[in-house]
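Quick log. Single chain, no ligands specified.
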Amino acid sequence: MAEDVFYTVEENMNNLRIDKVLSEIYPDISRSYFQKIIKEQIVLVNNKTVKSNYKCSKDDIIHFSIPEASEPDILPEDIPLDIVYEDEDVIIINKPKEMVVHPAPGHYSGTLVNALMYHCKNDLSGINGVLRPGIVHRIDRNTTGLLVVCKNDFSHNCLALQLKNHSITRRYEAIVYNTFKDAEGVVDAPIGRHPIERKKMAINYKNGKNAVTHYKVLKNMKGFSHIECRLETGRTHQIRVHMSSIHHPLLGDDVYGPAKSAYNLTGQTLHAKVLGFIHPRTQKYMEFESDLPDYFQKLLTIL
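-> predicted structure:
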């Protein structure tokens, strides 16, 4: 069945085009889809049809229907994987740049999950559903480095508990704008959805979730710094949002930093270098480390 939606326009969306407002409310649905249903007169504002250039006013009531979502078939794909470790319970992957971790609107093929389904066959946990089999945590599309995938529900539950208790070791390296006066520090600020740009995250003291990032300066360089970040929590875009909030956005991050990268990069310079956890079955601590990718090392040399 279709979902019937009634939405009252908030003050921060006053004077925005209606297609923009709808895409901010539902960031997983494309703006072109909303333009289509507005043109088809399926969207009502205050019980009247409007054109796509209609600008909303505070307290406007928008009414429309969203068709019931159908999950697409996710197919195994023979994509090479950089496997750091594997046993009957877990598999550790060194993820390359530009690979999406799990299928989502606009990315239903070429993802890490597609590759894992081919490699692991049916040996992936099912707790997170058909779109995210085995995925207990994720890293951004343009972040490189280590993540652990679970092959069964037993290991998934164990690692999910460790994530909840903040006992998994996750250390990242990044290149950020500007130099630091202090050798290390902590950013303790809640992260939630950006109040206006709904596809972005932001420091959000009203509705955000607790987020803590510890950082250490590895080297100050001319106009940039090479740092290590240790995650105490694991919020979406946490390092990117936190470092930007203290005026040290990641080099290459065109979402939370300058619109144009200083070195014509694709995405942020962020690498998940160290990953450690207690193995679900053996109950022994295991730690893995991944070398910085070539592009990252070359940038350090240049800087």
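The helical segments are 18-25, 31-39, 112-120, 153-164, 238-245, 294-302.
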